[in-house]
């Protein structure tokens, strides 16, 4: 069949002849249905309808020519007559340009109402003109009108889904340590990209009694820091008061539509007054709430639409919810950082050492300088270091780590457990350790806190005081003066130092040696030292100087050259070397201007200090009294 012989579609002829009349009737009906400013959907459809009618006429003619009925009655009963119009029009009937315009305030209910009015206008014009299209043509007509509703709705839903996904990604990014202003900026960008009708958007955060812009698009960023909005003024104030979204259909004549949606907050704003905007149309504000507490306000505006669509308003609400959550998280992080800063400043001022260990790894999360000084000496303690790096591998230091382990994994609390530990500089110290677990609201152990006090000097002073008390009691109670001398030496060698030796030389005979030691190694050397007395009496310069000064002399570091100078022979030197002394104090003994001998105190495991010389001098004084008492007692006995 030649093209000129194709069957004509009455409906196609009708649309080509009466499309202008249908359009005029539709415009009149729309103005009655929705007076005032027309929506973007109406404008887009009015521009596209002539093209839709032309394409529909072509489709009708093609369908009528291909819709010859089957010859058999049974086949005719099952015959549909035409395939779905979507097969013939794979691209959207409205075209992508129109669909993009529909994004500016797309409202599905409004668009469906417009198409319903259009459908009635077409049907009424068909009745007036007496046109009688076939059921195949009417099927195509209705499917086309349905499709022009489905296309923008589907596209709008897809765009909204992508926007919500972008909001989710920004929220996930906020779980890190990203600055709140950057996150709010990302949220505003999502709003502007997803709701094409938005001309400007701002997010304001509460700062004391005012709201200040922290992110925005379409508003001069240079003025953000100068503008602040009181909670009770302007459009922003209305949103704050009502604690719900507030929309203005046409904000241009509304006195609340000033600047970015609120009144300036006095001199801080940098402007005397703000003139009402004569360009704003739609204005929408959403309070940013976190558990009922106001965090800020989100405001969006448009000069192209009188009212934002329901879909856009939903997007704005979602963005405000995310912004409130992100701002709250940022505030909590700031509060936590401030509290941690105050906590760190507090523990840094404490006179005791403090260390906080994490519950999972046992790593040191926080420690103060005093803890570093106690366990590491002058070295700086590495932050976030395992406790095993803070203490040495000695048995005592492992006990200290075990205390922390018991708190972290056993929930034990230990108070004032004293133990020795080896400091990083090699010195043995005495610490008083306390440890306790830290639990969360559910009772789980999340950390442990250990405190340590260096009680080395305190305990040393207590021991020294007790030694002197005991020595004084010996002098007052004992009538065995020779025995008193030995007990004074024993106090010095077993409770003050590691070895104490008393070289007696009262000029009445051969020198005599009295010695006592605490350490087994030092006690093992005593027979060799006692075999060839005296231990230190001699003519060496250092000993002569100490004796001449008649005061306790500290040898802070015993060196081999010094031992070689004081030794009286190879065997003597060998015994002194085996002692392995680190420090010594030499105390010359005298009474009534007469030399009595020399008291020497030696340490192997610790270094003696200048403050130890006072205790050594007192022991020397007690020894001198005991020697002098023994001498006087002997003279009295001989006189009888």
TrEMBL record:
Q: Name the InterPro entries on file.
A: Biofilm_reg_signaling, GAF, GAF-like_dom_sf, PAC, PAS, PAS-assoc_C, PAS-like_dom_sf, PAS_4
- Source organism superkingdom: Bacteria
The UniProt annotation puts the region (Disordered) at: 251-275
Q: Which PROSITE patterns match?
A: PAC
Pfam families named among the record's database cross-references: GAF_2, PAS_4
Q: Which CDD domains match?
A: PAS
Domain PAC as annotated: residue spans: 415-467
Q: What is this protein called?
A: PAC domain-containing protein
């Amino acid at each position: 069949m030649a093209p000129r012989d194709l069957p004509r579609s009455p409906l196609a002829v009708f649309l080509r002849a009466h499309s202008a009349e249908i359009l005029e009737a539709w415009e009149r009906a729309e103005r009655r249905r929705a007076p005032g400013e027309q929506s973007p959907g109406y404008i887009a459809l009015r521009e596209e309808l002539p093209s839709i009618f032309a394409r529909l006429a072509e489709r009708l003619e093609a369908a009528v020519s291909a819709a010859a009925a089957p010859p058999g009655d049974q086949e005719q009963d099952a015959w549909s007559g035409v395939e779905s119009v979507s097969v013939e029009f794979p691209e959207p009937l409205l075209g992508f340009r129109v669909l993009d315009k529909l994004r500016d305030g797309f409202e599905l209910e409004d668009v469906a109402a417009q198409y319903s009015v259009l459908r009635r206008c077409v049907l009424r014009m068909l009745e007036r003109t007496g046109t009688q299209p076939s059921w195949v043509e009417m099927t195509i007509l209705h499917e086309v009108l349905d499709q022009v509703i489905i296309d923008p709705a589907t596209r709008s839903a897809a765009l909204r889904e992508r926007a919500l996904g972008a909001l989710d990604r920004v929220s996930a990014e906020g779980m890190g340590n990203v600055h709140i202003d950057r996150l709010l900026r990302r949220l505003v960008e999502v709003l502007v990209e997803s709701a094409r009708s938005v001309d400007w958007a701002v997010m304001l955060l509460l700062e004391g009694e005012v709201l200040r812009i922290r992110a925005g698009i379409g508003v001069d960023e240079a003025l953000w820091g100068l503008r602040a909005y009181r909670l009770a003024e302007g459009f922003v104030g209305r949103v704050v008061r009502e604690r719900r979204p507030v929309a203005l259909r046409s904000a241009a004549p509304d006195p609340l539509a000033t600047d970015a949606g609120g009144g300036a907050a006095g001199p801080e704003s940098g402007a005397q007054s703000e003139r009402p905007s004569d360009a704003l149309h739609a204005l929408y504000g959403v309070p940013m709430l976190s558990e009922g507490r106001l965090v800020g306000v989100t405001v969006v505006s448009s000069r192209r639409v009188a009212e934002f669509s329901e879909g856009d308003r939903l997007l704005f609400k979602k963005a405000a919810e995310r912004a409130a959550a992100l701002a709250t998280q940022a505030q909590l992080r700031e509060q936590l950082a401030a509290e941690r800063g105050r906590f760190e400043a507090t523990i840094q001022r404490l006179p005791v050492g403090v260390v906080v260990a994490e519950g999972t790894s046992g790593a040191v999360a926080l420690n103060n300088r005093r803890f570093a000084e106690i366990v590491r000496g002058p070295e700086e303690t590495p932050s976030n270091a395992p406790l095993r790096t803070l203490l040495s591998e000695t048995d005592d230091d492992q006990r200290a780590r075990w205390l922390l382990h018991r708190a972290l994994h056993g929930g034990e609390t230990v108070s004032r457990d004293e133990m020795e530990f080896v400091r990083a500089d090699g010195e043995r110290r005495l610490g008083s350790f306390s440890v306790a677990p830290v639990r969360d609201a559910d009772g789980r152990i999340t950390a442990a806190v250990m405190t340590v006090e260096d009680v080395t000097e305190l305990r040393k002073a207590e021991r020294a005081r007790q030694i002197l008390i005991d020595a004084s009691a010996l002098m007052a109670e004992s009538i065995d003066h020779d025995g008193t001398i030995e007990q004074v030496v024993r106090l010095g060698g077993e409770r003050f130092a590691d070895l104490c030796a008393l070289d007696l030389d009262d000029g009445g005979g051969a020198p005599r040696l009295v010695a006592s030691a605490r350490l087994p190694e030092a006690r093992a050397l005593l027979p060799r030292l006692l075999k060839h007395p005296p231990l230190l009496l001699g003519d060496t310069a250092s000993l002569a100087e100490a004796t001449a000064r008649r005061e306790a002399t500290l040898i802070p570091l015993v060196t081999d050259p010094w031992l070689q100078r004081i030794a009286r022979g190879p065997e003597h030197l060998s015994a002194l070397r085996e002692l392995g002394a680190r420090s010594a104090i030499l105390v010359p003994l005298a009474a009534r201007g007469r030399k009595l001998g020399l008291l020497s105190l030696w340490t192997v495991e610790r270094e003696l200090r200048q403050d130890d010389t006072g205790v050594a001098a007192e022991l020397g004084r007690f020894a001198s009294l005991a020697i002098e008492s023994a001498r006087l007692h002997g003279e009295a006995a001989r006189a009888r």
